[in-house]
Amino acid sequence: MHARLLSAPSPASTAAASSSSLPSAGARPRRASWKPRGPASATSPPALSLRARAAMEPAAPLPQGQGGPPVHGVSNKVVGVLGGGQLGKMLCQAASQMGIKIVILDPLQDCPASSVCHEHVVGSFNDGDTVREFAKRCGVLTVEIEHVDAATLAKLEEQGVDCEPKASTIMIIQDKYRQKNHFSKFGIPLPDFMEVDTLNSIEEAGERFGYPLMVKSKRNAYDGRGNAVAQKKEELSSVVASLGGFEHGLYVERWTPFVKELSVIVARSRDGSTVCYPVVETIHKDNICHVVEAPAEVSDKIKKSATGVAEKAIKSLEGAGVFAVELFLTEDDQILLNEVAPRPHNSGHHTIESCYTSQYEQHLRAILGIPLGVPSMKAPAAVMYNILGEDEGEAGFFLAHQLIERALNIPGASVHWYAKPEMRKQRKMGHITIVGPSKTSVKSCLDKLLQSDTYTPKKASPRISIIMGSDSDLNVMKDAENIIKKFNIPVETTIVSAHRTPERMYEYAKSAKDRGVEVIIAGAGGAAHLPGMVASLTCLPVLGVPIKTRSLSGLDSLLSIVQMPKGIPVGALAIENAENAGLLAVQMLGARDHELLDKVAKYRDELRDMVLEKAERLENLGWEEYLK
Questions:
Q1: d(CA 369, CA 321)
Q2: Is residue 8 predicted with pLDDT exceeding 80?
Q3: What distance lies between CA 243 and its chain's CA centroid?
Q4: Taking the model in full, what pTM does it have?
């Protein structure tokens, strides 16, 4: 990795430049040049650090476009990235695996990406001259932060520089009010919003939208910064002042009483085709993303709606790359767009471990014109936890490292430490991703990781559901719940009658999958319609337990269950053997959960040991003494 510094040239260097092969600055001196920073000295120069020595060396030309020597990877283009934060770091890590060279432009010498990029140019991504000079080294230019000099990018595009996504997209995203207007024109569902520039206009907005009222800065707002809430009219003046005044550029939104915050990562290729990652839920702490759960526990209908809104929003923008679409899910199941990021995003960190193609590899594929990868999850469930600064300085580092130490002892946990040199409260210092066979499993691991942390997970959704037509069946069906609970699997038990509550049965069966249920155990006597009717309404596996009746002792129930028509299978258990039904359901879940299968094997071993112990006792005592 080479680092180069951008600084203002001295008069001597300016004069020297006029006789070089580089373009002359002409009447307007160039603001930046490729040379190290540092004060001039009349004495002999001090020993230089490795980074400084590298900066003193002339820059070797890098491959660009179709010219220059080929890069021995999947593309012969050098990717230039404006910004070298944690997103840039993970982008570089993905590029390294693919043999793609990345050059970053960031003003901090020790930015997170500096240790893993091909070359680090030290300079401001908000300075037009610096960005123009940087672009000469790149085959394609992209961003890991949207707060860049978009006007310069637009001029570079006019000169033929390949920028992805396009400058027009960056400009729209940079101004959140402009962003809202843009998406509104394309029919994207949004919270109601309006621009405010005087006290009268914001009071009018309060009357129109009611309170609480969300007040937002148009620009430079992220991670909760630039947002404030006015609970009543009397608070408007102080809220406006806290955001820098009307001259700072403000707008307001109607308060959205959402039940969940969702996010969809959308990748768009150079030909305009798109792929979407699974919908995730984001949980915030002090307006900063704290936990991401993948996939989101919402219905298939909501997932489809969220994906549709996200895809439509991204197709309205220009350019290739990965985009994050943050959404609100309201109480009446509406999906509203909150905002869009034109780059990889915090809500997509989990994709490194949980998906076939990470968002970072996908971003490179998109901007380079490589076929997009498969976005689906290769692990059934994942949870991402942001390591936020809990204290300043060394105290904060100590707390973070305690968390990391616990994470390293948790199966399925991966630690990403960004190596930021300074610790501050609420600063994103790293993240931990946990993958596992189920949402219950990963949440349990997260609980273990956090111990006494402030995050409180919601009650786990049932993975197995036990139903029966009447409470008279409960004495049998309780055995299923008892055995399932021995394996610490969330389970629900309820009454659903195929004959007396057909509407409830229909709603139950149709909603079971969306509620997280994976296996259904249905007890039934007499006509035994419940298992078959439920199986006809869901694709989840259904296990039927025949219940004894006064007339035929359960034989009629058994024969009814085993005679299901082709295409609607129901697994039939022995008459009143609900315990075996519960154990079989556990084994079905264990098919993709090795830890659970190990518990089943241990349970089997305990049964074997119990039988052997009885056999030995019988042999030693004889049957008469054994039966006493």
A1: 10
A2: no
A3: 29
A4: 0.74
Phi, psi of 51 (to 5 degrees): -65, -45
* Helices 128-135 and 150-158, packing angle to 10 deg: 40
Structure tokens at 458: 């919601």
The single-letter DSSP state of residue 520 is: E
CA 504, CA 515: separation in Å to the nearest integer?
15
Query: Closest Cα to residue 272, out of 316, 307, 305?
Result: 316
List, in sequence order, every beta strand (DSSP E) within 117-208: 119-122, 140-143, 193-196
Burial zone of 27 (CB within 10 Å; 0-12 exposed, 13-18 middle, 19+ buried): exposed
Q: Which residue, chain included where needed, has tokens 């409470």? A: 471
The CA-based angle 313-316-317, given to 5 degrees, is: 100
The tokens for 430 are 């790293």
Sequence-separated (6 or more) residues with CB below 8 Å from residue 536: 568
Structure tokens that stand for 408 in this block: 């390293």
3 state DSSP class of 74: coil
Contact at 8 Å (CB) between 154 and 37? no
Selected residue with higher pLDDT from 240 and 1: 240
Task: Kindly tell me the burial class for residue 116, based on how many C-beta atoms sit within 10 Å of its own C-beta (0-12, 13-18, 19 or more).
Answer: buried
Q: How far apart are CA 41 and CA 48, in angstroms?
A: 13
Q: How far are the Cα atoms of 136, 225, 624 from residue 615, in angstroms, in the given order?
A: 83, 71, 14
Task: Report helix, strand or coil for 487.
Answer: coil
Contacts of 345 (CB under 8 A, 6+ apart): 87, 263, 265, 322, 324, 359
Question: Left, alpha or beta for 68 (phi > 0: left; psi -120 to 50: alpha)?
Answer: left
Measured distance CA(381)–CA(350) in Å, rounded: 10
Burial label for 172, CB within 10 Å (0-12, 13-18, 19+), is buried
- Which DSSP helix (H) or strand (E) runs through 467? strand 464-468
Contacts of 185 (CB under 8 A, 6+ apart): none
CA nearest to 326, candidates 371, 292, 362, 365: 292
Residues 337 and 330: their CA atoms lie apart, in Å, by: 11
Supply 622's token pair: 């004889």
Q: Which of 465, 519, 191, 504 is nearest to 338 (CA)?
A: 191
In 3-state terms, what secondary structure has residue 575?
coil
Cα separation, 513 vs 540, whole angstroms: 7
**Which pLDDT value is given to residue 225?**
76
Residue 73 has pLDDT above 80, yes or no: no
Rounded CA separation 443/24 (Å): 61
Contacts (Cβ under 8 Å, ≥6 apart) of 434: 382, 383, 384, 385, 410, 412, 413, 414, 442, 445, 446, 449
SS3 399: helix
In this structure, which amino acid lies at residue 399? L
Residue whose token pair is 């893993």: 116
In this model, does residue 307 exceed pLDDT 90? yes
Q: What is the DSSP letter of 358?
A: -
CA distance 451 to 440: 16
Q: Under a CB-based contact definition with an 8 Å cutoff, are residues 530 and 500 in contact? A: no
Burial environment of residue 497 by CB neighbours within 10 A (0 to 12, 13 to 18, 19 or more): middle
pLDDT in tens, 483-520: 999 998 999 999 999 888 999 999 999 989 888 899 99
Specify the DSSP element, H or E, that contains 492.
strand 491-495
Question: 482 Cβ partners below 8 Å, 6+ apart?
Answer: 579, 582
